[in-house]
């Protein structure tokens, strides 16, 4: 079921918007991305997500859904004809939800009020646990979701581009083959998977966005 | 499907443990509650939830699931014979997940590092939005979930007892019929619903627990 009554309010460099885009690609759902500046909130954004006032927002016909992981689950529930995004087994689903929530806790919430070294430490620690999670969830297959890209691949995959940017900016080495070999190879597979490779966030483009924002913020405070 | 191979690691006054207990009651699943002191973490707790080291933990045969809302969804997925906990419609499910996450953000995460007045303000604000959410979700029926107790009823219902305790301790009035009439009547219905009334957290018992902890903490610092 491909429809064109699907709109995503988002900004392409946002890892959370990227999750929604990946899920729509997997389900072959046509959509329109309405670029929405997260710093200058549009009327449509404020009306669509009055509680959090954040992207992404998915508008499907007359329905509005917010919060990236909730949107991804909605997409899986609403377009049942495409490949499944969440695992079908109740326990596997629970584990996927657990690690997805963990990713947001470690990689999103960490960024706001902590010292740089503490943040880097949290990311390292998180990736080591996620390496183990990958081994358990993938059961020897290519992705967290098995043979194809699933919920956890989306939840973590959207962060890979920004992790690489953080490596460049901080000098840290996150995607280290000696420490997390499975995750490093998993990330490479994501960037070459026919289903999502054209929506994976590219490091050089994110770096450009970052530099642009830095320049704007320097100019504003000058 | 009622089994006795279900164990909950928890402490009965915990609202998050209460969610799991409510969901098991709704599904008529027999379980054993292993009282687990959250301040003196048992070996079993550390082994079962090495990432967060927190209750509740659900152990179902050889499977271990953590995080209350994830456990409730697991219970709904694993025991399909009982009444549904999450709505069946994809959009209604998304909305239920959205507000459940909101409840945790407003009522749990608020408690950790903020001034008392800021916390009370957040709770007021949250309840006003949840009053609106109730009107939209219940569609004129008794519960968020419609005719019977569902996911959002569980997510918020577990907090009612502690809200009443906070009212007594702070002098604030949260469950105010002039401001949130639908939620006040909804809470009364929960406390008399045949399915969950015997597991709803009672104010006087929670107050006793609170006073005991206060006394212990005073003694420890004396």
From TrEMBL, chains A, B:
What residues does the GST C-terminal domain cover? 89-213
Where is this gene product found?
Answer: Cytoplasm, Cytosol
Protein role: Is involved in the conjugation of reduced glutathione to a wide number of exogenous and endogenous hydrophobic electrophiles.
Name this protein carries in UniProt = Glutathione S-transferase
Q: What does the record give as the reaction this protein catalyses?
A: RX + glutathione = an S-substituted glutathione + a halide anion + H(+)
Q: Which SUPFAM superfamilies match?
A: GST C-terminal domain-like (SSF47616), Thioredoxin-like (SSF52833)
User: Which family, according to the similarity comment?
Assistant: Belongs to the GST superfamily.
Specify the domain of life of the species encoding this protein: Eukaryota
Q: Which UniProt keywords apply?
A: Cytoplasm, Transferase
* GTP-binding found in the keyword field: no
Main subcellular location: cytoplasm
């Amino acid at each position: 079921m491909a429809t064109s009554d699907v709109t995503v309010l988002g900004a392409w460099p946002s890892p959370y918007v990227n999750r929604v885009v990946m899920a729509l690609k997997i389900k072959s759902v046509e959509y329109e991305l309405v670029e929405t500046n997260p710093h200058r909130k549009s009327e449509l954004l404020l009306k669509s997500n009055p509680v959090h006032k954040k992207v992404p927002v998915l508008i499907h016909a007359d329905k509005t859904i917010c919060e990236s992981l909730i949107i991804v689950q909605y997409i899986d529930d609403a377009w049942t004809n495409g490949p499944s995004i969440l695992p079908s087994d109740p326990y596997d689903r629970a584990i996927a939800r657990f690690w997805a929530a963990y990713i947001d806790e470690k990689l999103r919430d960490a960024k706001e009020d902590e010292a740089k070294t503490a943040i880097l430490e949290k990311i390292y620690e998180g990736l080591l646990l996620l390496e183990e999670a990958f081994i358990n969830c993938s059961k020897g297959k290519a992705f967290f979701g098995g043979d194809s890209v699933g919920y956890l691949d989306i939840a973590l995959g959207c962060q890979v581009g920004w992790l690489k940017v953080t490596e460049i900016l901080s000098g840290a080495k996150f995607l280290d083959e000696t420490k997390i070999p499975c995750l490093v190879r998993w990330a490479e597979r994501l960037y070459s998977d026919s289903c999502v490779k054209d929506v994976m966030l590219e490091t050089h483009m994110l770096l450009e966005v970052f530099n642009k924002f830095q320049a704007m913020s320097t100019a504003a405070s000058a």
